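User: Hey, my collaborator sent me this sequence without any context and asked if I could get a structure. I don't really work with proteins. Can you help?
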Amino acid sequence: MQFLCFGYFNAQKMDDRPEEEIEAILSECPPHLEEFYDSGQVKLDSGLDKESKYLQRKHGKMDVTDGPFIETKELIGSAFLIEAEDMEEAIQIAALHPTIQVKAGEQFDWGIEIRPIHYWKSFNKEV
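Assistant: No problem. I've predicted the 3D structure and written it out in structure-token form, which is a compact way to encode the shape of the chain:
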């Protein structure tokens, strides 16, 4: 079974800190990423830009809104796809990610949302 995971952070809290401090914290991530990748169950890992667009059909036409659209202090900063037998195993794998392992991330509200994927149609045999 595959799970799509979203890594969240509080952009304002991170933007309020000096760039050098953020860089120092982010430099703690690579060893944790290697352990995460070495699990063999990570199929895709990507960082997301702050820029986004929200598409919606309104009054018979497409409406495009600048995002992020969701009204929250947290932004999605990463997305990754993992393979696991069930949600419990997905939690164990996702817990290896720097979002959970880097202690300093707590002050920036780093967190992970895990969601099972239900495919309508797969176009890529490798996923």
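In plain terms: The mean pLDDT is 90. You can pass these tokens on to your collaborator as they are.
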